[in-house]
Amino acid sequence: MEVDSPNGNRGPEPISAVVAQAGEYSVEVRAPNKSAPPGTYEIKLEAVREPTPGDRAQADAEREFREAQKLARQPAADSRRAALEKFAALVPVFRKLEDRPMEVLTLNTAALGYHATGELTKALDFYGQAVPLSRALGYLAIEAALLNNIGGVYDILGEPQKAFDYYWQALPLWQSLKNDSGQGDTLNNIGVIYFNLGEVQKALEYYQQALPLRQASGNKRREADTLDNIGIVYRVLGDPPQAFEHLQRALDLRREVKDVAGEANSLHYIGYTYAALDEPEKALDYYERALPLRRSAGDRRGEAVTLNATGEIYALRGETDKAFAHHQQALQLLRAVGDRRLEAVTQALIGNIHALSGRSQEAVENYAQSISIFESLGAKRDEAWARQGLARVERERGNLGEARRQIETTLAQVEALRVQVSSRHLRASYLATKQNAYEFYTDLLMLMHRRDPDAGHDAVAFQVSERARARGFREMLVESGVDLRQGVDPALLDRERDLSQVLNAKAERLMRLRGQRNTDEQVAVLKKEVGALENEYQQVQGDIRRRSPHYAAIIQPATLALREVQQQLLDPDTMLLEYSLGSERSYLWAITQNSYESYELPARERIEQSARRLYSLVRARSVKKKNESEAQRRERIRRADAELTKAAAELGEMVLGPVAPELGSNRLAIVADGMLQYIPFAMLPVPDVRGRSVYQPLIVKHEIVTLASASALAVQRRERAGRKTAPRDIAVIADPVFDVADPRVKSGVREQTQAADSYATRIVEHLSDGEAKLRIPRLPFTRQEAERILSVMPAGANLKAVDFNAQRAAALAGELREYRYIHFATHGYIDSEKPGLSAIVLSLVDERGQARDGFLRAQEIYNLQLPAELVVLSACQTGLGREIKGEGLVGLTRGFMYAGAPRVIVSLWSVSDRGTADLMGRLYAGMIKKGQRPAAALRSAQLEMWRQKDWRSPYYWAAFVQQGEWR
Q: Between the CA of residue 60 and those of 26, 67, 108, 621, 776, what are the distances in Å?
């Protein structure tokens, strides 16, 4: 008998088959004779006993396994189905024979087959049986692969948290095995999850970690896969050149290794990128290049994917017949290969074509078939998508009740999937990807309101608006009053603390490197490390939440209905204005204690275009343009001021015009949406004076506060109920030392250290014009600001931390818990990619000129425990942050509210140092000398500045807004 050498791919008969023929035997392996083919050996078997029934059963089972393998390799769907049935039937056979290696192999083979055909529940069953068996056998590589594949199934099923859980289990196994290929696969898959959740920056970080590992493994096909993924991320991030560069690199690799199926995949992604850039003709060209390659490679599944993409292009062009033909071809292919999930996707796409063509009944039937398949697969995310399509068709048919039933089922599935995610920021990201469903539901209810104005549909629409927004913020506020760490494994808490310390140290080092020259490569490496640490830190925090006995209480905070808002939140002097911007129509609800009205507004695009223009004009003074002369700057500002009044009136008419007659002199609590979050309503003119030549802002008659949502304010009030007032008056932290060149550093030390690199002199701040400012300048008027504030406070019970004492350590020491008012007068640093690293900038050097970490980061602010009545962030852009659709601006404000502050005053653009000092002096004079509430005092201060010629421009006074409680 001849067998292959160890590295061969062919194999005539396994040894167990010989056992069946010979019973027990002895084996002698002889070197090949001269005429034997290379790599073959002669094996001499000598029987010791006759084969037993068990021997024969083993041989029969292995023979059946090989037959199943042959069937699985055949193109016919019936053959592959028969193979799967054989594999499934063989599992109990090998289990009875106690052949655990073959049992693992059979379970894995069956699982992969069911995975490929879209029978995901069965795939999970077989994967799940294989994991403990492979673990018991010590097959670490097989266990890691199984865990990785289970994660992939949960990704398809739309359960990202479960997918993450399995990927995080697989990753350390690959690392312990030093298996670059496996690590690369899992890191790539983690990136896919982040991408699907809308966390494209994190997706990019994981893809970039995966890429060198895949390159090191030498598998150019896998490397090309990750390059394709990176290309798509750059497409989403709005960087087409980078997108096409990575996609072209992937295409070149595919061609180098003659990977025809992969080449088609890269061509498809290039087409997909052109489609996203609204270049359908170029997209179509690449799809048409990919299609014949799909066919020549025998990749019928890939062929169907490209046919569907092509059909979508034709649908966009209005060529519904061509679109329909392409989707029908795709459907036939997918049925042939047995991919039921993509079959269901195609059914839904066909439903969309029927809807576009006016064949609504056929559309309903296709969507129903799609939903039925998704239900059988347990693919809840896809089912929710299909139901939303069905709801849209029913709305167009005029069946508003059925449309409502479908969209409510959709949102119930969205909610069920959301609460499974333990990471707070990922829950927010996931819900952001589903905001269009909430938008559709809101619009549907308002259409029902139009049909039947007395049925209260607009009140339900308001509750849907509340349900969709600031969910993460509400959960965070509830969490602030719960000890989630009680009862959690101490080792996990230690890990959280250690990660926090390392993350802070690395983040500080990153800022230091950014301030030095010729360190781009080091910055890139350290940035990846910081990103990986932050991801791990958030993962540990997610584990703590999930394992806490109190976790269930925080993930479903109540959403207030309209009547509850009237009864529980509002007083006779306050009107709530809540906005919901939509792609077709936007809406405004105006609610008082005794009444409510709803209004239809223009579509999101029109409102946001107007808001962006106004925001650009009001910030003209803070923008620094390269090579601009002082005369050019003055002229640019003059033109901006001239246009600002008209731009403000235009936006005011859009968003306040319908409700203007009802405003009276009420306090206005604004729940904004989208770009409106960047606009201080205080500066908008009252719509009924649009024709006047004199600009009159809204604050002339109205005190204004902003809210993340009405329900969030309700949570704040509940969590603060019965809290004792802090015993001391105010802590002012101002005028830090940023640089060794500062005169406050001892002269001798300054001379010795000035030649050294100082990272404080080159930290990059985020500026509106996209340019980097390479110094953090001293803010001399913040000292005057501090003195002026303290001059109106009662003496003795205050904290003045200036110069070197305005340091991070002082803020973290716990002393701030003693003060009712906490005032930071310094620079702010906003990290729009990683909100947890946003910071207040305090002293960056000590008296001896030695650098120290002066960044009080958002993730540290969360843990301050401040029973303060008011926190003022008298710095640039402190009210900004990362915008998450539905969640709002996530940044420093929420950190202080989590820490306990019911109200925070922040800025929406880079402010004037001198003007801010004047405004803040007036603010505290109003609160302390006149006894005004913070919101009323802020209004008075802003009005006083508006009435003065030097400060009349909204740039000087309107940037500061109060967020949170007005009482």
A: 22, 10, 20, 84, 78
Contact by Cβ (8 Å): 222, 185:
yes
Verify that 635 and 777 share a domain, yes or no.
no
**Tokens, residue 870:** 């008011």
Residues 6 or more apart from 704 whose CB is under 8 A from it?
667, 668, 670, 680, 681, 682, 698, 935, 939, 961, 962
Q: What is the 3-state secondary structure (H, E, C) of 322-341?
A: HHHHHHHHHHHHHHHHCCHH
Cβ contact 789:801 at 8 Å: no
pLDDT, tens only, 407-452: 988 888 777 766 666 565 565 666 666 778 888 999 999 999 999 9
Does pLDDT of 554 surpass 80?
no
**Whole-number Å distance between alpha carbons of 902 and 964:** 6
123: which residues sit within 8 A by CB, 6+ positions away?
111, 112, 114, 115, 149, 153
Is the distance from CB of 39 to CB of 4 less than 8 angstroms? Answer: yes
Q: Terminal CA-to-CA distance of the chain, rounded, Å?
A: 92
> Nearest-CA neighbor of 114 among 310, 339, 289, 269?
339
Helix (H, G, I), strand (E, B) or coil at 377: helix
Tokens linked to 806: 């305005």
The phi and psi torsions of 845 (rounded to 5 degrees) equal -140, 160
Distance from C-alpha of 604 to C-alpha of 362, rounded to nearest angstrom: 32
CA-closest candidate to residue 891, choices 648, 708, 617, 763: 708
| Together in a domain, 636 and 752 | no
> Residue 456: CB partners within 8 Å, gap ≥ 6?
none
Confidence band of 337 (pLDDT split at 50, 70, 90): confident
Q: DSSP states of 195-256 as a string?
A: HHTT-HHHHHHHHHHHHHHHHHHT-HHHHHHHHHHHHHHHHHTT-HHHHHHHHHHHHHHHHH
pTM, entire model: 0.72
Residue 266, exposed/middle/buried by CB under 10 A (0-12, 13-18, 19+)? buried
Nearby residues of 11 by Cβ (< 8 Å), 6 or more positions away: 3, 4
For residue 352, which amino acid is it? Answer: N
Do the beta carbons of residue 908 and residue 895 sit within 8 Å?
no
Residue-range definition of the domain harbouring residue 587: 562-712
Number of domains forming the structure of the chain? 3
pLDDT of 263 strictly over 90 = yes
Q: Are 288 and 253 contacting, i.e. CB atoms less than 8 angstroms apart?
A: no
CB of 735 within 8 A of CB of 782?
yes
Q: Are both 686 and 758 inside the same structural domain?
A: no
CB 624 within 8 A of CB 777: no
Quick one: 741 and 869 in the same domain?
yes
DSSP E strand boundaries for 592-674:
596-601, 667-671
Shared domain for 831 and 731, answered yes or no, is yes
Cα–Cα distance, 545 to 539 (Å, whole number): 10
Q: How far apart are CA 369 and CA 624, in angstroms?
A: 58
Burial of 883 (0-12, 13-18, 19+ CB in 10 A): middle
**Is residue 38 scored above 60 in pLDDT?**
no
Backbone phi and psi for residue 63, each to the nearest 5 degrees, phi listed first = -65, -40
Of 477, 590, 304, 455, the residue nearest 893 (C-alpha)? 477
Q: How many CB atoms lie within 10 A of CB 681?
A: 23
Distance from C-alpha of 289 to C-alpha of 304, rounded to nearest angstrom: 14
The pLDDT assigned to 542 comes to 66
Mean residue pLDDT of the chain comes to 81
The residue with greater pLDDT, 492 or 451, is 451
Closest among 965, 663, 917 to 780, alpha carbons compared: 917
Whether 784 and 707 share a structural domain: no
Q: Is the pLDDT of residue 137 over 70?
A: yes
CATH number at residue 864: 3.40.50
Which tens digits make up the pLDDT trace of 926-956?
Answer: 999 899 999 999 999 999 999 998 888 899 8
